Every structure is written in C-alpha cells, then in structure tokens.
Amino acid sequence: MNPGSDVTLRDVARASGCSVSTVSRVLSGSRPVGADAARRVREAAERLGYRPNQVARALRSRSTATVGLVLPQITNPFYPALVRELTHVLDERGRAVLLADCDDDPGTEAARIEALLARQVDALLVVPVDEERSRTAVAAAAGRVPLVLLDRSCGPGIADLVAVDNTAGMALVLDHLAARGRTRPCYIGADGTNSAAAERRAAYEVGAAALGAPPRLALGDFSAAWGRAAVDRLWNRESGPEPDALVCGNDLIALGALQRLRQLGVDVPGRTVVTGFDDIPPADLADPAVTTVRQPVRDIAVEAVRLLEQRLDDPAAFPCRTVRLAPQLVIRASTEPGDHPAHGTGDTAPSAPGPTGGTAPAPRSPDSPSASHSSKAAQ
Amino acid sequence: MNPGSDVTLRDVARASGCSVSTVSRVLSGSRPVGADAARRVREAAERLGYRPNQVARALRSRSTATVGLVLPQITNPFYPALVRELTHVLDERGRAVLLADCDDDPGTEAARIEALLARQVDALLVVPVDEERSRTAVAAAAGRVPLVLLDRSCGPGIADLVAVDNTAGMALVLDHLAARGRTRPCYIGADGTNSAAAERRAAYEVGAAALGAPPRLALGDFSAAWGRAAVDRLWNRESGPEPDALVCGNDLIALGALQRLRQLGVDVPGRTVVTGFDDIPPADLADPAVTTVRQPVRDIAVEAVRLLEQRLDDPAAFPCRTVRLAPQLVIRASTEPGDHPAHGTGDTAPSAPGPTGGTAPAPRSPDSPSASHSSKAAQ
DNA sequence: TTGAAAGCGCTAACAT
DNA sequence: ATGTTAGCGCTTTCAA
C-alpha cells in the first residue's frame, strides 16, 4: 500500500549488492562513486521506493536543513508575502521552514526561539517583536546558530539585519508631497517600540523639517483603528490647522484613516492626500487606492537567505551586517486625482530606481563595523 | 558563552551520578523514578543548561512532534488567521509546524508533501489546491501519516476534513437578502476546481431557486480583479436587468466589486447590496464595510488538531470523518444602510447561533460512512 | 526502582 | 572506488 514507508539504506544496499556507505554516497552525492555501482543503487532505490530519513541524516550530520522563522504576528498583512518568498527561496535550497508566531509578545517569542533551537534548526530568521524586549532572547539565540533579523532591528551588533530602507521610503513620500505642493502634512504613526516604527517616525521628522513643514505627529499603533481615531482627533478637535496630507506609518493606518475621512466627507485626494507604507494587498482595494511605499519583499527574502548561508558556511567570517533595500513609491489615487481610472490594480510610477540613501540624513544607527549596504541587492 | 549548546544526556548523567536511562526517564517522564534521584537529575540538568536534542529523540522514538502544514497560497488573506490558530493550538501540545506554500500548483503541492514526509512529520494538515488534481498526492500521503484536510475537500473518502459549512453560510446570506426584499440577486464567484468554490456556487443556486430568484451566475476566480470585471460585465452590457444584490463567493471578489461599483457611481447598499464570504481582515476596512460570512477559524483549528491527534493515537480507529462548522453572518454597511456609523469595526448581528444545516439541501457529498457532524464543535 | 546495552537510520572516519 | 566500523543523542528493552 505504501512502499517506501520503512525502506532503509540497508535494504537498498542489500538489493543493489553494495555496502551501505556506497549507497549513502550515491544518494547524498558526497563522494565520487563508480558509474555502474551508482546505477545499480539508483535502480534499487527507485524500485524499493526508498526515501532517506531526514531525521537520521540530521542526527548524524548535525544539520537538519531546517530554519526557524519567527514572526511577531502572522496576521499582520505584511508578513504573508514575506513568508511566501522565504519559503520558496529556502525550499529551492533544500531547506524547510519551521514557523512560529509570537502573538506580539516577547515572552512567547523567547519560548518559541527556545523550542526551535531544541529542534536543532540550522539557523533562525526573526522579525523581532520589540527593539528592546526581544534583545536578550535574540542575542542568546544568535550565539547558538546563525540568525538574521528581518524588517526590524534589535539594537546594534546583535545580528545580521535585512530590511527596507525606511528612511529612503519616507523621503520618497515627502518628495512626492512636496512636488504636489502640500505644506501642512501630519504624520500618523506608531510610537511602538520596534525599530521600523522608530525609523519611519524619525525619518518623517527630519524630512518634514527639511521641507519647512511644521512638525506634527500623531502616534498610536500600527492599526486601522488608530488610523480612524487619529483622523477623528485631527478633524474634530481644535488641534491646529487642518492637515492637507496624512503621512501614515503603514498601510493599515492609512486604510483606517481613509475610511474615516470618507465618512466625514473629506475629499481625498482633493482636500487632503493620504499615504501608506508597505504596500499590503488591500492597499489598492481601498477607494481611493492608497499611494504607498512598496517593500522589496522578494529581495529581502533573497538577501536574508544569502546572509544566512554565508553564516552557515563560516559563522565567524564577518561582524554583524546590515542590508538596507531600496523601496519603491507606488502612486495611486489617494494622492493623485483622476488617475488610475478603472483597473484598480494600477500602480503608476515606479520610482527610486537607483541606490537608496534618501533625502534626509536620518538615524541610521552605527549598527555594525561593516558597511550598511543598499540598492537592490547589495551583491 | 552559550551553555547548553552541546550538553548531552550523558553529561547530565555524569553530573548527577545517575545512569543515562534514569536521566532520560526523569526528563521525559516515561516511567516512575525515585524521588531524590529525580531531584538530583533535575538539578544537574538545570545547572548545565541541558536541553534535549529533539532530533535524537525523534530518531529513537519515531515521532518528531512536528506536523506539516500545506497551504495553496499563504498570500490568500484567509490563511494567515488559520495559520495563527493552528500554530498556537499545536504549540500548546508541544508540536511544531513545518510550513509549505504551494503557489496554487498541484505539482508543487505534491513535491512539498513528499518533502515533509521525508522529514518524518507525524502528521499533515493540508488545504488542497484542487479538488481533483490534488487527490493523488493527498491520498498517497494519507496512506503514510494521519492527514486532515482543511477548508477544502479532495473527493470523498480520502481523508478527514474540517471546514466551514459553506451551504449554511450561503443560506444565511440568502435569508438576509430575502429579508431585505432583494429579488434580483446575482452570484459572482469562481468556477475554480476546489471544493469550497463548488459548494458555495451550488448552495447559491439551490438557495436562490428556493427564493424564487432568477438563476444568475458570473463565474471567474476568487480575486478582486474578477470582482471588478464582473461588475463591469453586469453593468455595462445588455446582460439582463440590473442586479439589486451581488452575492460574492469570497471577500476579495466583494471588495473588488465594491470598488468598481463606487467608481461607476452605483449606490451601495441603496441600489445594490454586496456580500462576501470568509470575513478576511480588509472586509471591514472597505467603504461600505462588507457584510460577509465569518468562518469559525479558531474552531476549525481546534477541531482539526483534535482529529489529528485521534488518528495519531489510533490511525485506523475511524473511517474518514467530515466536520462542518457553522459560520456566522456579519452584517455591515454593504447591506445595511445607515448602520455602523463610525467605528468601522462594528460587526452587527451575530447569527446562526445553533447547529448548522442551512436552508437548502445542498451538495454535501456522501463523503464518508461516518456522520457529517455540524454545529459549533461537533464535540 | 535502576543500570547496561542495544539500537533508531544515517554519515563519516578509517580502512582497504 | 568501495567496504567496515563507529558512533550522532536519545529511548527502550532487558536484567538486576
């Protein structure tokens, strides 16, 4: 009924008249093997429906070909695309992914990391919950296996990091607004304690100041609910002049803000424009569709795996590296009237073609001794 | 620097003055052990920072405490919530999750399943890509390990299945429309070859007929793009009378349809109402927010894991079982004018309180010898 | 209750 | 180029 269920190397060896080592060598290609022996082995393996037991292989070779992927909250709509790319890239290299969700809790995160290490993952990919409160667990884990941080940092010198260049992304947004003559922007973001929140907020402050805009921030969390609440606050109270641009820290906030603005009857993009960050799937389903900063998700995945495998080859070869990838501004109807007439998917202007770097001298911490690469793939 | 990296059972044995077997028994609790020996062992283990090597354990005990989760496309916004619940439920029981994404391709799916089996997963959770083209691989896998299908079937008698009761869900929608006096509904769905698509479509047909509505279907795929296209087709051509209700096969379609209706200036819910299915996160970010059928995601996860563990305990105990969980209608502004005034998250009416079963005698195939349970958790 | 010993299925030395 | 032999770290007989 199910051939191959418990066929072992020894069975193949017997059936092919070779020794187990020869069979092992043929099947794992670790050493040169005689042509006809190889053929006989392959035949026998095929015939018996042999499939190597990866657990046994792992125990002996001290490598599970498995990496742990630790996410703060998989329900954050930015992560599914990242997971997709990572699993594909890793799968191509024969590696499997053990997934862990942390419910946005550093304690849970520490526990999950522990569990993954006990399962002997070869390496870890971590999007840390919090810049500070994740540090201990992440640092400890990084001492045991190669570990690459994704999307968010965890303090300098802890581990390799691959993330979008938040500073450059914010600069793209501000340039876009400036070109459209917006002079009273307000930032709706998160005061969250993860690094992406901090970077975007800081980049906005610096960039807006450079443009001569009044420094105005509304800080809550990265949710649509906060987007709605922030609009209520900005429009219903005596909180200064009405903004003519809402620069949102991520797309969820932008979506929530847009929803409330429409309910209040505020014309977008006429009276105020709205921008997001990340380019999550629903961003172009809103009405108007949201102008946003697209993260180079595929590149992030490729880059992260590259760093990981370098560490696997030689764990001590480099000091901690930070790779910043250039984002792309996706202009949609929330900042550009009349545009994007029908086929809602319409992204308009690709931008930021070249290396990143941004307009503003933003807070890129002196993360590591090594360079802070940029541009599409930092080779 | 990193205690516990290579502390083994033998080290603990030496340090505690016991034999490895005693240590093993203490730590895995497999057999009664003397009180003070136990204490000494625990102390030593603690002190050395010992953590059991799960790979070695797995090799010996023939159980990896790992399940494979195979998804058609993790970027489908319905799955992240499911993944979240599953990982949490499994984690509570000490099991880890190996995740695989199939890119909606049955060939890839077969390969991923093979890879997971080679890694000796104890069991598989699969959302099959296609009702027919996934069958061979799924059936083969089900012959090797316990396998539970989620969300979509794969033909009768192949494996256990846990899914929402699509028929009941569609009945909730149709009742809701009928109560609002809508008489010219149109179904915008998918002619896709997965079972959820087929069930929803069939349930609509049967239910709409029962209400005396003209049978009208527009079939494409489960995407927002198709929602837009379908609306174009229904409004721009001479394709019969203008519908006063769009019953969409999932939320993405509904979101796309809504977007286009707004662009065409069609008032929702005044001139036509729109409903979705699944209740994915962006459904309540649209404007108007989408009335939809919420899947009991948590229950699906709990139920699936329950079935899995039963099979693990005794693989041949039962024939294939199908568990159908009752959905809930979430009424929002796309069918209910004036409602849901400000705080967009506002879900309105919980419904479908009791057992499921629906209005229409829909195509619930004679799946298995065993019963087709229903209601919230089929105990 | 505890210990000694035999493997789980494979790979990696070490021989030849 | 191939075979023989030890284990990887753990659980589990089997004795005591």
TrEMBL record, chains A, B:
Residues 7-61 form the HTH lacI-type domain. InterPro entries: HTH_LacI, LacI/GalR-like_sensor, Lambda_DNA-bd_dom_sf, Peripla_BP_I. Residues 358-379 have a biased composition (Low complexity). Keywords: DNA-binding, Transcription, Transcription regulation. One of its GO terms (molecular function) is transcription cis-regulatory region binding. Residues 335-379 are annotated as: Disordered. The keyword Transmembrane helix does not apply. It comes from the Bacteria. Gene3D superfamilies: 3.40.50.2300, lambda repressor-like DNA-binding domains. This is LacI family transcriptional regulator. It comes from Streptomyces cacaoi.
